[in-house]
Amino acid sequence: MTSSLHPSQLHQHLQMYDRAKWSSWGSLAVSLSLLFLGATQKPESKPWILTASVGTLEVGRRHRQTAKLLRESLGDIDRASRINFQALARTQTQTTAQLALTVGSFNEDWKPENLVTDPVEYIQKKQKHVALVGGTGDGKSTFTQYLSSKIGGRVVVYDSDAKPDDWAWLNKADVIGRKGNFQSIDTAMGNDLKTLEELVELRGEGGDNAIAGRERFLIAEEFPILVDECDHAATWIKRHAKRGRRYKQFVCALAQNDTAENFGLQGDKDTLYSCFVLVRLGQFGRDHARSKLKDPQLEQWLKAGGKKRFLVDDCPCELDLSNWGMTAIATPENSGGGNEEVRSPQDLNEYEQIILAWGQEHPGEVLKARLLQQVSQPFKKDDPENIRIIFQSLADRGLGEVVDSGDRLGWRWRE
Fold first, then answer.
1. For site-directed labelling of 256, which of 50, 83, 118, 207 has its Cα 20 to 30 A away?
2. Residue 336: predicted pLDDT
3. Phi, psi of 317 (to 5 degrees)
């Protein structure tokens, strides 16, 4: 592997590497010597000698870790030493010359052979879930919103930090957890698990046609936080990872690290890699190219492209979302007296269609959340407040009207 360090940094790093390496061996030797000495001393002295030995051994361990990190940054030690010597020779023989040697120069015209230009097509072809990894400012939210606008099915978002204008084109009831309401996320995830069980039964009885129209794309923002705050989160992702694809319940989980633990899959890395497409943005993509793929040229290519270049699994991808906005997919708003655009029943999600069908069968009758829970299995375990939000959403779009307010709010169909 080629070092990405400039020659002006090599000398210092090589010195640090040598010191850390020899210090780790020295600490090991001292620790063994103390253990040997302790065996020959009086019993009252042995605890002190043993403590000193363990402390010295810990110092050596830390130095070995430091040496390992430095070796990764240096790459090929022999090559780094040779380049360092060449740079030193230049400074000694050409005192007026400016140091211009670079390591691993990048060809701006170079393009990777396995370039992916449509990540959505790649994900859909793989028929896998999505694990999205990136740091603050790497564009996780923008990419997720783009992805949700392209993948079919009802989109449900678990986002405790969602701002009022985030996910503006979705129904309010489908953005769960605003203002840090982890309880509502936990409840909804529990309902998702029950829905998955229902779909298993339905498909077992009636085949794929029995679950047609119930496709969903479930987005979980900052999943490690949800694992800490929500009891159902770890079970939710495991069940959907292994069974959700067959029943068209796809998951997109976001984190700032690509370890299995961050996705609630402790000790189950195989599930992460076999059931998810890993999308690595920003520094995470560059680190993967360098440390796992051993491809410094790919690392430099990713770095040169900024946010528009990232990795999808081990494949480089280029997608410019800088001019992409939510207005392209948001529902147009009523801006002053005109008729608001109303979606047809075919455009409604499965829950809205159930309510609309009930209203058309019972014209003029008021539907309350409690009644809906009694007559409709999908709503049986749902939060009444979420049901009332759906009532209001339908009325806002000209489909029926709401009656009363607060906990007494209901909905009825009117032409």
1. 118
2. 37
3. -135, 145
